[in-house]
């Protein structure tokens, strides 16, 4: 009986994954939806909490409290009436968020079953030191275990962020190579990787970085097998339709845009010019939300932000 039960559970999980995949294929080709990035790591959470009106004094003496506070913020976002699958195609979670619950339901399951939102997991361990104008991903020694855990938790795909600071051809080539190498391991576990080689918006030679990056991305996309599909998550480019060839590439499910430190207005404005790119904003999504707002004020602000980001993601 136990064996049958386990098999049934495994089937249910894989049916859910297939259903999520159908949703991704359908909705990324239509546009008018976007991904919410709710995956600030331990390193970027203090800044996110500060912007939300919670100062480090409130948790400094108890490091674990920081994760509780940021989970409360994410729970408030996810529970908001406007945060549904109608506008939010997917949400990217930090591992700690996946490990926690919302209304006593594991976060990824809650997102999919109660909200119709496809859950993704941030799997990187942060950035290595800068070399050759770029920061590669730090080693991920437990990657295979983490990917299996992600699958058990009903996660559809993953994301990992590296960072490009300047137009160093070798550096950018190494970043993209590492992203695709790990991306193939992720595909091997039956998950869809989001390849995220961010270009720093302050890079002095940003458009040149973006030309080198596009060429490297296409080289690696061209080398994938027919059934190896990935997503890309990229800085909003300087040139209009910079990543058109990636958007149209058969191995690319969709091209997402990160907000990168641009304000919501700037990010939306830049995104509007890029046909086929859809938002996967973190800072530009949570801009203007505060722990000190009433629920009505919070929900109204989030609704307006979601409306504007949907409009910018529609081309
Ligand atoms: O925790 P990290 O790796 O510093 O990433 C911070 C954020 O960067 C992103 O990749 C992009 O976020 P922004 O839209 O704020 O640029 C998010 O997914 C993530 O929350």
* Strand-pairing-aware structural class: alpha/beta
**Tally of strands:** 11
Separate helix tally: 12
Radius of gyration: 19 Å
- Measured by DSSP, the beta-strand proportion falls in 15-25%
What is the arithmetic mean of pLDDT?
Answer: 94
Q: Which regions contain 5 or more consecutive residues with pLDDT less than 50?
A: 1-5
Bound molecules: 1,6-di-O-phosphono-beta-D-fructofuranose
For the termini, the CA-CA separation is 51 Å
Instruction: Tell the overall outline.
Output: globular
Instruction: Please outline the major beta sheet.
Output: 9 strands, mixed
The helix content is 40-55%
Helix-strand sequence: HEHHEHEEHEEHEHEHEHEHEHH
What do you see in this structure?
The structure is a single chain. This protein is an alpha/beta fold and 315 residues long. It has 12 helices and 11 strands. The chain has helices spanning 2-30, 45-51, 63-79, 95-99, 107-115, 143-152, 169-188, 206-222, 244-247, 264-272, 283-286, 295-313, and strands at 34-38, 88-93, 101-102, 105-106, 118-122, 134-135, 157-164, 192-199, 230-235, 252-258, 277-279. The strands form 2 sheets. Strands 1, 2, 5, 6, 7, 8, 9, 10 and 11 form a 9-stranded mixed β-sheet that branches. It has a two-stranded antiparallel ribbon with strand order 3-4. Strand 8 (192-199), helix 8 (206-222) and strand 9 form a beta-alpha-beta unit. The longest helix has 29 residues, at 2-30. It is globular and about 50 Å long. The N and C termini lie far apart (51 Å). Residues 1-5 have low confidence and may be disordered. 1,6-di-O-phosphono-beta-D-fructofuranose (FBP) binds at residues 37, 39-41, 43-44, 92, 161, 196, 258-260, 281-284.
């Amino acid at each position: 009986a136990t064996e049958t039960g386990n098999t049934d559970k495994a089937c249910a999980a894989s049916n859910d994954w297939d259903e999520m995949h159908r949703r991704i294929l359908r909705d990324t080709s239509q546009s008018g939806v976007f991904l919410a990035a709710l995956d600030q790591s331990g390193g970027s959470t203090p800044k996110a909490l500060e912007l939300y009106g919670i100062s480090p004094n409130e948790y400094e003496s108890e490091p674990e409290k920081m994760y509780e506070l940021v989970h409360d913020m994410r729970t408030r976002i996810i529970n908001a009436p406007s945060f549904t699958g109608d506008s939010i195609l997917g949400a990217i979670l930090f591992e700690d968020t996946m490990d926690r619950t919302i209304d006593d339901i594991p976060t990824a399951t809650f997102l999919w079953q109660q909200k119709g939102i496809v859950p993704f997991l941030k799997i990187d361990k942060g950035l290595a030191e800068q070399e050759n104008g770029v920061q590669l991903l730090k080693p991920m020694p437990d990657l295979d275990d983490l990917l299996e855990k992600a699958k058990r938790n009903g996660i559809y795909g993953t994301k990992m962020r590296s960072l490009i600071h300047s137009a160093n051809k070798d550096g950018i080539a190494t970043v993209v190579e590492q992203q695709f190498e790990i991306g193939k391991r992720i595909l091997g576990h039956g998950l869809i990787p989001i390849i995220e080689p961010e270009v720093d918006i302050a890079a002095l030679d940003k458009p040149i970085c973006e030309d080198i990056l596009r060429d490297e991305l296409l080289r690696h996309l061209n080398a994938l097998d027919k059934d190896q599909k990935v997503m890309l998550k990229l800085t909003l480019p300087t040139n209009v339709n910079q990543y058109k060839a990636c958007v149209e590439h058969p191995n690319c499910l969709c091209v997402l845009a990160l907000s990168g430190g641009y304000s919501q207005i700037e990010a939306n404005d830049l995104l509007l010019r890029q046909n086929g790119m859809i938002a996967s904003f973190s800072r530009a999504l949570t801009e203007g939300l505060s722990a000190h707002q009433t629920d009505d004020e919070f929900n109204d602000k989030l609704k307006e932000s979601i409306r504007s980001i949907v409009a910018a993601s529609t081309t």
